[in-house]
Amino acid sequence: MSAPTFDLEVLRHSTAHLMAAAVCELFPGAEYGIGPSIEDGFYYDFLLPGGERFSDDDLPAIEARMCEIQARHSQYLRSELSRGAALEEFRHRQQRFKVELIERIPEGDVISCYQTGDFFDLCRGPHVAEAGEIPAFKLLHTAGAYWHG
């Protein structure tokens, strides 16, 4: 039986979620913004607790945790929430950037989310079915960013 093939954008976006799950495990209290697939890879916006900042020295530990999450066969589980339920969920998770994004969504719109392990995020998808389907990844560098800037 051959391995499944996926669109490159799906693989990149799924890998972004895998990375975000790893970051949230390694840096409890991390807040996350958006994490799209882009032309040459992917990224995720994070705000670390206590004013911490990422450096390229953190990348090997993040990659190692990504591999651990893959080994758990963590699935990408899709759910749909009402605007009110999504606001409640992300307030409970203390994710103010997500709350800000949800507040822009019109009342009555269905909000889709994906969960990978304990990591839960707003997302249209699609994703691979489980983290183990991502064949390879390499984190190359970190960069500073400003929310909406």
What's the structural blueprint in terms of helices and strands?
Layout: H1 8-26, E1 31-32, E2 37-38, E3 41-42, E4 46-47, H2 59-71, E5 77-81, H3 83-92, H4 96-103, E6 111-116, E7 119-122
Antiparallel strand pairs: 1-4, 2-3, 5-6, 6-7
Report what the structure shows.
- This protein has helices at 8-26, 59-71, 83-92, 96-103, and strands spanning 31-32, 37-38, 41-42, 46-47, 77-81, 111-116, 119-122.
- By secondary structure, it is of the alpha+beta class.
- Strands 5-6-7 form a 3-stranded antiparallel sheet. Strands 1-4 form a two-stranded antiparallel sheet. A two-stranded antiparallel sheet has the order 2-3.
- The longest helix is centred in the first third of the chain and has 19 residues, at 8-26.
- 28% of the residues are buried.
- The mean pLDDT is 92.
Entry summary:
It comes from mine drainage metagenome. The protein is 34% helix and 15% strand. It is of the alpha+beta class and 149 residues long.
Keywords:
15% strand, alpha+beta, Threonyl-tRNA Synthetase, Chain A, domain 2, two-stranded antiparallel sheet, 7 strands, 149 residues
Order of helices and strands: HEEEEHEHHEE
Q: Kindly state the mean pLDDT as a whole number?
A: 92
Gap from first CA to last CA: 47 Å
The main sheet comes to: 3 strands, antiparallel
The CATH superfamily bears the name Threonyl-trna Synthetase, Chain A, domain 2
How many domains is the backbone divided into?
Answer: 1
